[in-house]
Amino acid sequence: MSKNIIIYLLLDKSYSMWCRRHSVVQGVNTLFKEQKDLLVKDQTVTVNTYTFDDKISIVAEDIPLTEIKPLTLQDYVPNGNTALRDAMAHVFHKIKNDTTPDVVHLFVIQTDGEENSSSISQEEFNQIRDASKAEIIYLGMGEKSEDAMNNGRAYGAHRGATLTYGENNILDAIHSLGEAVKRYRSGSSQKVEFTPVERGRSSSCSSCDGI
Fold first, then answer.
1. Do 81 and 117 meet the contact criterion of CB atoms below 8 Å apart?
2. CATH pick for 4-203 out of 1.10.260.40, 2.40.420.20, 3.60.21.10, 3.40.50.410
3. Would you say the pTM of this structure is higher than 0.90?
């Protein structure tokens, strides 16, 4: 297990996420708290949090996990379209320029829709993605488990690191993410992967959270 782990959390805040706004904020803050509670000897964890719609916004960069502040509703105001390739390319460039020794880059993407407004092409994105040294974890909304698997592969995630969540299951998905990251950080898993139980818990589709 690497002594240094850098987490990059990229949150979709396109307009369609509005009715899940409170759930996303709650889920992310629970994720941070639970990761803080896991103490692994000689392990350093750094957090970067971004949101994206038509453009990417920096919420936090290069913050030690122990010092990360809660995400607020002011940080997360859904609006606009889904420029996912552009947002991911921004994070990939940051990862490329990182010089931390003995480091693992965990790049988590959460989205409820497909790309629809990026300035870079899929071909340009593929070149940036293929040069990356990040481990990609992809959480995508859909009706079948294959939805996130298929979309996630296009963005660089291996099958086990993709998770489909239902319309009203974003909290379950973020909880599953936290459990998978804790298994990896503690050394009980060699990769960030989701269990069948976590997939089942996250995949039930229903309406928005109504808040």
1. yes
2. 3.40.50.410
3. yes
